[in-house]
């Protein structure tokens, strides 16, 4: 069974407004595999690619990244080794889903009932996504920007979320991660949600008078002052 496979580059059919990336699949270590679960984990690499704003240069960088990944994998790079699972006898303590459950217990005492209900539903939807994607084995520090971005974009499409709802879910995940970054040792060294772009939300301002409304208001004022 090969350790890695399916190294591919994606250029979004040349659409510069969408994410370009290189992806590959790597064999999940036996100790991390779920019973009857998938054998390979998909990884996406987009760093250094999407910051380039000319199509020709971005295509060139996409090719460079793909070649670099191929060379690294041939040289024995293993994306799972960086996590050092064997170094943590109590690794389950850092499990992302378990951290979500513990965090909900903590915030329950500090939020009003309705606020907590909304917050709970949103963070548990993210937990369900991790389970559905079969990445619920990950530690909290292994949740990537791609994992979070995939979650919000998937549900924005499937549930037709507004930009405001999309941003709200991002904020819930950001707050959850920030809690562990600020208050717990050995859990996180960075909040990956910081660098996920929020979507623009149109704010409703005062509507201008149209001619009909202006005439009605003027008529009402004249009536008021003549009675």
Q: Which features characterize this protein?
A:
single chain, 227 residues, mainly alpha, globular
3D structure, described in words:
By secondary structure, this protein is mainly alpha-helical. Helix content is 45%, strand content 9%. It has six helices and three strands; from the N terminus they run βββαααααα. It has helices spanning 55-74, 96-107, 113-132, 145-158, 163-183, 211-226, and strands spanning 4-10, 21-27, 40-45. It has a three-stranded antiparallel beta sheet with strand order 1-2-3, with helices on one face. Helix 2 packs antiparallel against helix 3, helix 3 packs across helix 5 (163-183) and helix 4 (145-158) runs antiparallel to helix 5. The protein is globular. The N and C termini lie far apart (92 Å).
Write the layout of secondary structure elements.
Elements: E1 4-10, E2 21-27, E3 40-45, H1 55-74, H2 96-107, H3 113-132, H4 145-158, H5 163-183, H6 211-226
Antiparallel strand pairs: 1-2, 2-3
Helix pairs in contact: 2-3, 3-5, 4-5
Contiguous low-pLDDT stretches (5 residues minimum) are 83-90
Q: Portion of residues in helices?
A: 40-55%
Amino- and carboxy-terminal Cα gap = 92 Å
Q: Strand-residue fraction?
A: 5-15%
Please provide the ordered H/E string of secondary-structure elements. Answer: EEEHHHHHH
How are the strands of the largest sheet arranged? 1-2-3
Tell me about the largest β-sheet.
3 strands, antiparallel
Compute the average pLDDT: 84
What is the radius of gyration computed over CA atoms, rounded to a whole number of angstroms?
Answer: 24 Å
**Helical/strand content category:** mainly alpha
Shape: globular
Work out the number of β strands: 3
Report the total helices.
6
Give the oligomer, counting copies of the same chain as homo and different chains as hetero. single chain
């Amino acid at each position: 069974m090969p350790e890695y496979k399916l190294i591919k580059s994606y250029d979004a059919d040349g659409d510069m407004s969408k994410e370009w990336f290189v992806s590959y699949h790597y064999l999940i270590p036996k100790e991390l595999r779920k019973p009857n679960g998938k054998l390979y984990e998909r990884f996406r690499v987009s760093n250094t690619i999407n910051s380039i704003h000319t199509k020709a240069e971005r295509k060139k960088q996409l090719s460079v990244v793909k070649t670099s990944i191929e060379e690294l994998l041939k040289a024995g790079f293993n994306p799972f080794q960086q996590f050092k699972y064997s170094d943590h006898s109590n690794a389950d303590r850092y499990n992302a889903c378990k951290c979500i459950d513990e965090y909900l217990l903590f915030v329950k005492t500090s939020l009003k009932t309705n606020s907590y209900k909304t917050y709970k539903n949103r963070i548990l939807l993210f937990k369900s996504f991790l389970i559905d994607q079969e990445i619920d084995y990950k530690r909290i520090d292994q949740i990537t920007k791609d994992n979070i971005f995939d979650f919000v974009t998937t549900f924005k499409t499937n549930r037709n979320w507004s930009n405001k709802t999309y941003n709200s879910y991002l904020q819930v995940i950001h707050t959850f991660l920030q809690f562990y970054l600020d208050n717990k040792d050995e859990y996180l060294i960075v909040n990956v949600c910081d660098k996920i772009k929020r979507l623009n939300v149109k704010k409703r301002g005062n509507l201008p008078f149209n001619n009909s409304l202006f005439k009605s208001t003027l008529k009402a004022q004249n009536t008021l002052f003549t009675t």
